[in-house]
Design goal:
The structure holds three protein chains of three kinds. Chain A has 23 helices and ten strands. The termini of chain A are far apart. Chain A is of the alpha/beta class. Helices cover 49% and strands 12% of the residues of chain B. In chain B, helix 12 links the parallel strand 7 and strand 8. The longest helix of chain B is centred in the last third of the chain and has 18 residues, at 199-216. Classes of the chains: A alpha/beta, B alpha/beta, C alpha/beta. At the A-C interface, helix 2, helix 3, helix 4, helix 8 and helix 10 of A face helix 1, helix 2, helix 7, strand 9 and strand 10 of C.
Chain lengths: 476, 259, 219
């Protein structure tokens, strides 16, 4: 799955016309937003909490190399094996190597976006290892052979009837639209897998450098199962997940769960600091951490764009985004979709591949307002648009991959022309007078041929401009 | 992006500059005139430099900062004296107040220009904000009873942080009943060039917005941004019988006008 | 050069000598927390919070009253088999349950050798290291005596919590340095029965973990 400018246009347009999808999204996003808002309104000074969260992440990012080394040191001291991967392929190869050494035939997975990023499932399956998603939403989309359409709620695009059809077809279970019954089906299937899986793979929400602790936030218990039942646990994390102190956890967790689901805390907040110790009767014998770069260190090198790495993956920006609500997650053809995806994907995949996503925003700013760590998403969109459209010949590529790739000669010329007109008041007044006159002569039906006019009437130009109305004023 | 510090509003000035914006200039000139006259009605002199064109937001938002900077530089030069600059648009106001600092903050700009941009930004006010917080206007409603919905435009509420002022102005009008709109704070889908470049998404957004406004039962829709009004008004007109759509200043002018 | 060195080198080049106030945010967190509505009596708050997510509880004066409380749950929920760890303090409870004819098992070997038994028991019983009042979270630190699966694999989990071990907030627990000085293999905060909302955001209880969580608050 790779972002593609042409396909985005088509897929997005098609999605806006998909009544079922729109209905499914409206229903669920409306509920999540209400829960998130209620959870924040119950707090005194919620914005201050966001500011503290922002400060914690900025502080941790400022000390990133040092904290990663400390994390590695603490984890290793207690027997957790640390691996570093520069690319998605390297990360997958590391997991495969561990699986082969341990003779693993079945892998169960907790929800992890990093493994989506590396496309681990497909990789392991190609090497003959069965992989099963254990988070209910992930399990549903895996059965449907689709990627997740949301970073927190992977099956948000589907309603219960669509899921009922899927379960009936793929699991051979009697058809039911009862959500409890469907959940029970998944529980039955996955229970057996937890008992026999040779490896559990999960993500990491926070990695604490101070103590060498991996924290997982979840509600279903699949994360606990994956980190308890199989003999090997592999945790995959983006290198930005490290935070300095244990005392950072109360703030970050408050923000994460409230932003993601409106909960004050998730059902399970799981802290892992070592493999099974001598005498302990369960838990994995081996715990591995794969620390993934995959473009993050290049993001890190830019003082402004670095803010992207503060993301907690709560999904609040998706839930509030008016664009996401109209097109859903699949149209982006990217692991990270919605507002955070629009800034993260072009930086990880390169502007030449995903630069078009930066244009799919009205810059309304709703995302920045709900972001628990105050990532200025619209500002970063503007910055990336600038990087994408700057003249490459000028040799001012501040940002590496794909700088200048979004520059279209026609558009560049248009803005140059725009500048010439707006630089010179006389040109501006003449040109706008001409345009108003022309627009007034234009048959109204012709308007519907323009992109603006397909679903909207054209505005009626003023008979006299404000300049003209105010010509005889002081200061004119 | 939002101004972190609370805005310090000046005392009532004797003179202000007025920046009309290109959309008001060409599509809502009467609203621009109404905004000016309502300021003058409070005994404040209004200067409208005829050299003004556009704040530069369209190319800035498209990533063409050099082009935006050239035009922005010319605009700033038209407002040299320390008078407040009143702008009948949240979006253009935010371009001035929030983004000029960025536009003139890079390695390409002289230190003196950076300082100039900051000084300029600090005296820019959106029209409703200026009327409410600086002039503290008091109006008497002379119009018949009417049901009104207000659309809070994105940059006005989120970048300038102006949420109360327009409503406070409307609340002074005794004949006006405000009709709430579902998801009122959601973007209408205009987004400047977005409306054309991403037409299907934009249209889906504005269709929803128009539907929710109609459901709210208002006879009139007002807002402080011409772009949103063009967008919402265009969709409403296409959908069928619709509320009248007009800028807040023009609506207020009609209500308080002495015949 | 290894991947590790390449990555760290890139990050070191990218890192600016930015501010580092190791404890500034901790202090701000404490300040912020002080502004929140008061937690009041931790026990009352804890019970109110767990009630919100459907967790039932019984209050008992001391450990001697635990067996009767557990027995009442065993009847109420139709539990026919229970499992505990090897915790000596629970021996009276085990004896009591056996006397009541309840199939009472002990996880005494390993999860591997007792797998079928573990996954086919109705109810796991564990002690809790403590609890966090403001979020209604049990603080479980599984151990050799009380393995993790006891609070995870069975449809019902009964947690035995002493009132003296309630902390008002998570920050209060962390401030006592117990975790910092000796991080356990696993610590888990449990705030209710296992749940999901992955289908139409409809809350459904009992996915991979327990369907029912019961808390006996002692003291």
């Amino acid at each position: 799955m790779k972002p593609d400018a042409g396909r985005f246009k088509v897929d997005a347009a098609r999605a806006t016309l998909n009544a079922t999808l729109r209905q499914n999204l409206n229903h669920t996003l409306g509920l999540i937003r209400a829960r998130r808002d209620a959870a924040f309104e119950a707090l005194t000074a919620p914005e201050e909490l966001q500011e503290i969260g922002q400060a914690i992440k900025q502080e941790s990012l400022a000390r990133l190399p040092e904290l990663l080394e400390r994390l590695e040191d603490r984890l290793t001291a207690r027997g957790i094996q640390v691996h570093w991967a520069e690319t998605a392929d390297e990360a997958n190869a590391i997991v495969l190597e561990i699986a082969r050494r341990r003779g693993v035939q079945l892998v169960v997975k907790g929800k992890t976006m990093v493994s989506e990023e590396t496309e681990l499932n497909r990789f392991l399956q190609r090497h003959g290892i069965e992989v099963l998603e254990a988070d209910l939403g992930e399990y549903i989309v895996q059965l449907a052979q689709q990627p997740p359409s949301h970073i927190v709620a992977p099956a948000i695009h589907m309603n219960r009837r669509e899921i009922a059809d899927l379960f009936h077809e793929k699991l051979g279970e009697p058809y039911t639209v009862d959500i409890e019954a469907m959940t029970a089906m998944a529980r039955r299937v996955l229970r057996e897998k937890f008992k026999t899986a040779g490896m559990g793979v999960t993500g990491v929400n926070f990695a604490i450098a101070e103590t060498g602790t991996l924290c997982l936030v979840e509600n279903e218990g699949n994360g606990r199962m994956c980190t308890t039942a199989p003999p090997v646990h592999v945790a995959m994390m983006g290198l930005e997940k490290v935070v300095a102190n244990l005392s950072d956890l109360p703030t970050l967790n408050r923000l994460l769960t409230r932003s993601a689901t409106g909960q004050a805390i998730s059902t399970y907040f799981n802290w892992i600091s070592s493999p099974r110790r001598r005498g302990e009767k369960d838990g994995p014998e081996e715990v591995h951490v794969v620390i993934l770069d995959n473009g993050r260190s290049s993001v890190y090198s830019d003082g402004e764009l670095r803010d992207t790495l503060a993301c907690l993956r709560c999904g609040a920006c998706l839930n509030i985004c008016p664009v996401y609500a109209r097109i859903g997650g699949h149209a982006y053809r990217a692991v990270y979709m919605g507002p955070i995806g629009k800034i993260l994907t072009p930086q990880l995949a390169g502007l030449e591949t995903a630069g078009h996503l930066t244009g799919a925003s009205t810059l309304c700013g709703a995302c920045a307002e709900v972001c628990p760590v105050k990532i200025p998403i619209p500002d970063l969109l503007l910055r990336l648009r600038q990087e994408g459209s700057q003249p490459t010949a000028a040799g001012r590529a501040l940002f590496g991959p794909g700088a200048g790739s979004q520059r279209k000669p026609a558009e560049a010329m248009l803005w140059k022309g725009w500048q010439v007109l707006h630089d010179r008041p006389a040109y501006y007044r003449a040109a706008t007078a001409l345009a108003r006159a022309a627009a007034a002569l234009l048959p109204r039906r012709a308007a519907s041929l323009s992109p603006w006019g397909r679903r909207r009437e054209l505005p009626v130009p003023a008979r006299a401009s404000l300049h003209a109305l105010l010509r005889n004023r002081p200061g004119a | 992006m939002t101004s972190a510090d609370p805005i310090r509003y000046p005392d009532k000035p004797e003179t202000v500059y007025f920046f009309g914006t290109c959309l008001v200039d060409n599509f809502y000139a009467q609203a621009g005139l109404a905004a000016v006259e309502l300021i003058e009605r409070e005994g404040v002199r209004v200067i409208f430099p005829q050299g003004q064109t556009c704040c530069g937001q369209p190319p800035f938002n498209s990533g063409y900062r050099d082009e935006a900077r050239r035009v922005a530089r010319a605009q700033m030069a038209l407002f040299p004296r320390p008078f407040p600059v009143v702008v009948p648009s949240g979006s253009c106001g935010a371009m001035f107040r929030v983004h000029y600092a960025e536009l003139f903050g890079g390695p390409d700009t002289a230190v003196s220009e950076q300082a100039q941009a900051r000084e300029f930004a600090a005296r820019v006010f959106e029209w409703s904000e200026f009327m409410h917080h600086v002039l503290r206007v008091r109006w008497e409603d002379r119009g018949p009873p009417v049901r009104v919905s207000y659309h809070p435009s994105c940059h006005l509420q989120r970048e300038l942080g102006v949420r109360r002022a327009p409503l406070a102005l409307l609340e002074q009008l005794s004949g006006v009943t405000l009709c709430p709109v579902e998801d009122a704070e959601e973007c209408c889908g205009f987004g400047g060039t977005f409306a054309v470049k991403q037409e299907p998404i934009s249209a889906a957004m504005v269709d929803d917005k128009a539907r929710k406004i109609v459901a709210g039962g208002a006879e009139v829709l007002v807002a402080c941004d011409a772009g949103c009004l063009m967008n919402i008004g265009g969709a409403l007109a296409r959908q069928g019988p619709a509320p009248r759509v007009l800028p807040l200043a023009q609506f207020i002018k009609e209500r308080v006008h002495e015949a | 050069m290894s991947a590790r060195d390449n990555i760290l080198n890139r990050l070191r080049i990218g890192a600016r000598t930015a501010f580092a106030h190791p404890n500034a945010t901790t202090a701000r967190e404490a300040e912020w927390a002080a502004k929140q509505p008061p937690i009041g009596d931790p026990a009352r708050r804890f019970l109110a919070e767990i009630g919100k997510v459907g967790t039932s509880y019984l209050r008992v004066p001391d450990w001697t009253a635990v067996p009767d409380a557990v027995t009442s749950w065993v009847r109420e929920y139709g539990i026919s088999s229970v499992m505990t760890g090897t915790t000596p303090a629970l021996e009276p409870l085990r004896e009591h349950l056996r006397a009541q004819g309840v199939d009472t098992r002990i996880l005494a070997e390993t999860a591997e050798t007792q797998r079928e038994e573990i996954f086919n028991t109705d109810c796991g019983i564990t002690t809790a290291r403590g609890a966090i009042a403001d979020t209604g979270s049990l603080l479980l630190i599984p151990s050799a005596q009380e393995p993790r699966l006891l609070s995870l694999a069975m449809p019902v989990h009964i947690a035995l919590l002493e009132r003296a071990n309630l902390f008002p907030t998570l920050a209060d627990y962390l401030a006592n340095n117990e975790f910092r000085n000796q991080p356990p293999t696993n610590l888990v905060l449990v705030s209710g029965a296992s749940r999901t909302a992955d289908i139409e955001l409809t809350l459904t209880v009992g996915v991979h973990g327990p369907k029912v969580l019961l808390v006996a608050l002692i003291g």
